[in-house]
Each structure stands twice: as structure tokens, then as C-alpha cells.
Amino acid sequence: MTDGDVRDMAVPHTSASTRRPASVRMRLLAIALLPTLVIMPIFFVITAVNWSSRFDNLLIAKVNGELTIADQYLAQLLENSDLRMQAIADSAAFVERVAAQDSNSILALLEERRAELGLDFLYYITAEGTVLSSPQLADELGLTKWPVVSQALAGHGSAQIDVYSESDLRQVSDELAETARIRLVPTQAAVPTDRTEETRGMMVHAATPVQGASGRGALVGGVLLNRNLTFIDTINDLVYPTESLTEGSQGTATLFLDDVRVSTNVRLFQNERALGTRVSAVVRETVLDRGDVWLDRAFVVNDWYISAYEPITDSFGNRVGMLYVGFLDQPFRDAKFSTILTFAVAFAVIVLISVPIFLRWAQQIFAPLERMMRTITKVEKGNLGARTGVENSGGEIGRVAAQMDHLLEQIQERDRELTRRVAERTQDLEEANRRLEATSKQLVVSEKLAAVGEIAAGIAHEINNPVQVIQGNLDVVRVQLGEDADQIQTELRLIDEQTHSIFLIVNKLLQFTRPDEYAEGSEQHQPAEIVNDTLPLVQHLLSNGHITLDLELESVKAVSINRTELQQILINLMVNAIHAMPDGGALTVCVVDQNRDEKAGVLISVRDTGVGMEPDHLKRIFDPFFTTKQGEGTGLGLSITRKLVERYDGAIDADSTIGVGTEFRVWFPAN
User: Fold this and answer.
1) Which pTM does this prediction carry?
2) Pick from 514, 508, 517, 513: nearest CA to 455
3) Which one is the CATH code of 523-669: 3.40.720.10, 3.40.50.300, 3.30.565.10, 1.10.10.10?
4) Would you tell me how many other CB atoms lie within 10 Å of the CB of residue 362?
5) What confidence tens digit (pLDDT) does each residue in 552-577 have?
6) Which end of the chain, N or C, is less packed with Cβ atoms under 10 Å?
């Protein structure tokens, strides 16, 4: 073989050896840069998109909760209107005038009560169709067309939202019709219309039955919601208290008649409310046409808002308007964009700093490997004395073969340690997460109870006035009857006791909101005696529900407790038992002496034969705001009952079986 042959054979060999280091270099560079330049950007984009979606869902959940508060306020407004009508109808002054059939004095009383309560109209209609009204109605015919009025004449009081036409409003007064009139303002994205003004009025329409000398009548009152800024501003203050939104955003609330804003704090300009503007076509179709709740971004007058709309139905069951709450969307979008931009800039800075470091580390790895490849090539050519020249300073490359098993053992041990640390850290995170969830639930309950307490304080103050009127008129009745009052002494005493009970309940409501301003003591009472005194308060429910009552009052011991609070506990448990037997049944109330933990006490048992409860429901019955009576209960009854029982060192528990019934047991220590 000649030297030329040797050179010809060496050329392809040398070419292959020069390609190998390049391949190793590229692989090491790819390994070093792929996580930073490819995987991390993809991860960042996925994280940003997911976070943005969760942020938007959080905003929707927030506005949904705010719509619930607004809806509850509207429902409370209707309930209060019904109660006010009942209070007027049950007042001694009104009953006396109706019994005397004194039209002039009835009219004077109606005018006085209408002014006091801020009603737009208040009238009394008899079974024969005679109408006494304040102000005087222009046309008294056709009043029974309203279901609220016809139901009251049939003996069922209620309060509903009704829409009055312009002629209906002018029947009350021209001034009321002019107040309701709203000029329509051309609105972007609204359904096209030829109308130029809205002349109808949305009314809170309340009526209660009255038993007169000539038969059953009805007391009817109403308040116009068109331009009722106090109503809408109250909703806005409840839903959006100070500093409840991010800087730059603002909360809004609106009442719609059909698709027209008739009461709103949305602004056209700085100081001009957007009365007469209309909702967008897509919202109208969703809420008014289909009857669904809208929870999404929506264009409101002149900007985008995170919005919630729900339909409002009148007493005829027709969808006649909408209730809306929402807050400006742009500040939240700006905050979201600013957050994502900050993370993107931080990510870019990290990449710019880390890439040169990764390249330097890669150079420290592939440089010795290239020298090793050149050495292997030399050995293949026959140079058995070739050396890499890499200093064996104890590094991984120089000792890879000899240290392989040792390194594997170290890696395995480190993996065990890492797994143990991850498990500990995971356990710590799970515990922290459980605490966070518990804290979040407590915050939600605290917010709800704060709102309930604020409303309860207002209601308590409002109840004091009619209670004082009742008590005062009762004293007048005694004076007027003189010795004849002895014939109805029992009834007068019951009225005194129940009026006093109302007064105590009002004080409890005020104590709930301002406990530092009130203090109460307790007296010795026999629970068996209080059960007998409480039964007349629920007797009408027992009779109407075809429920038989079985009493087992064997206790003779007394407990230290406030009498009214014990009545409240008993009424709550018995009313719940009655509601659990819609088709009738048997209610058993048992009071016996029973010792617990070597302490003398009294056990009160309330047992029904109702529908029973699921085990999951039974576990939550004492949680605030939990209720199985959807649309009928607040979920506070049993929670408050447990608080009252625990206040006097008592205990309460329950057992229930589906289809068999439920038993509540309350135990108090005896003295």
C-alpha cells in the first residue's frame, strides 16, 4: 500500500471525525437553550391565557354576587311594602273607622298614612266596589283588573311589580303621569324603535285584605319607581360600598321598564343620568325575550361594563323589565394587561441574563468532549499514545466510568430526599389551602351577616313606631271600655304580652347589630310552661296544615333563660316541623327532666312525621344561609337557634330519616 492510498483512506475518516464534535455541540446547545427559548415562552403564554380566563371568570362571579344582593333588596322592598299595608289595615285607628263606616275620617287617615310612608297613592276598596282614595282617583272603575287587588279582596295580601299605562297613572294624578314620562335617548346597539318617549310607570303595588262591616275589602298602595333615584342609589350603595372596586372603576345599578332605563345611576355626562337610554339588542333578547340571566360584558350607554341583568315579572307573570348591576370593565382590563406586561418584561430580562450563562456552561461541557473525540480519532489511526489532555481534577467527565455506580447511588438517595421534602411541602400546602378555604368561607358569612345586620337594624327601628302606636291605642281601648274591659281582659293581656314580645325582638335585632349598646339578663322559667304559652302562636299553622299535636310535658325543673328567646327557639323548631309536613301529620313536643354529665337539666324534644332530610343536608342544617326550602327560607333560623341555645350553655342536635320524620333535641342546664 502506497502513501497515496493511506492518504485516500484517511480523508473520509477525518471528515466523519470532524462532524461528530459539531453534532455533540448542536445537541448540547439545543439542550441548553430549548427550555429557555422554546418551552418557557410556551409555558408563559399558556399560563397568561389561563390566568386571564380565570381573572375574567372571577369578575363574572363577582357581578353575579352583586346581582344577588340587588335582587334581595328588591324582594325586601316588596315584602316591606306588604308589611306596611298590613300594619295600616291592622291599626286600631283604621279598624275603628272602617267599623264606623266613617268615610271622611277614613280619607283623612289614608292621606296621613300616605304622606308618612311616601306612597304615591293609597286607597281602600270595599267588596261592593266603593273606593276611598288618597289622592282622589279620577276613575274608580277597573281597579280589580290588577291581580294584587283581586287577590286581596279574596283574602290574600301581597306586593308585586306592576306596569301602569299613562291612563292608569292619570287616574291617580296628572303629576304622577308627568313624573313617569321619560324621553327616549337614541342609544348605540339598541333595538331600533319609532317611539320617542316612555309614558308607562313601573309601580311597587301592594294590597292587603280588610274585614269591614259590610264584608271583605282591600287596602291598596303604590310607589312609582320611574325616576326613583333614592331606590336605585340605595341598591348601588349596598352593592358597591366605598373602595369595593379597583381604582378608576365605578359601580352602576339600573331599573329597566321593558328595555328603557327608568331609574339609574349610569351617566350620559358627568352630572346627567342616562334616563331614557335603552339596553343593547343582545341583552334584550337574552333577558326579556328568553327570560335568562345575563352574566357577561355588555355595552352600557357609552362604554363596556361587566354586567349582570335579570328579568322582572309583574303580577300577571309577564316579563316587564330588568334589574341590572355592573362595573366599568376598562380599569380591570388595564390592570390585567399591566400585570401580564410586567411578567413578560421580567421573563425577557431573565432570558437575556440566563442565555449567556447557559452557553458558557455548555462550552465547559462540549470542549472536553471534543478533545475526547479527537483523541479517539487518533487512537483509531493507530496513535495508541494519544491522550485527551483533560486534567483529571475530580470532575464528572474525567471520572465518569469509575464513578458511575457511585453517582447512581447518590442520585437515588437524593431522589428519596427530594420526594420526602416534596411530600412534606405538599402536606404543608394542603393544610394552608384548607385554612385559606375556611377563612374565605368565614369572610363570605361575615359579609352576609353584616348586610343582614344592617338591614335588621333599619327594620327594627321601623317596627318600634307601629308597636308604640299599638300599645298606645290599647291603652285608649282600656280607657274607653272602662269596666267593660274586664270582659276581654284575657285578649287585652295577650295583646300586651305579644306587643312586649315584639319590643323584645326589636331589641334583639338592635343587639345583633350593636351588641355593646344593649345588655339583657335572664330569669328562671319552666320550659313546660313556656311551651303551653307558645302553642297559641303556631296554632293557626297546625290547624291549616291538618297536623295533630301531642304534648308530653313532664318536666318540673326551671332553667335560667330569657323567656322570649326560649319562645323564639320553640317557634323556630315547631314551624320547621310544620313545614316538613305539607300533607299533614303528627307533631310531638316533649319536655322532660334529664341529667347530662352529672348535671341536672331539661330536655326539649320536637318531633315530626314529615319528609325527613338527607344525611348531607342534616350535617349542614346549622350553617348560616343553608336552607332546603328554596325560595321560602333565609337559612338563618336554625343558625340563630343554635346561637341562642349555646348562649345559655345548652346543646342542640337532630336526627332525621327520609320518609319517617325529624327530631330536634334541645337541652338546658337546670338551676
Assistant:
1) 0.50
2) 513
3) 3.30.565.10
4) 18
5) 988 888 999 888 788 889 988 999 89
6) N
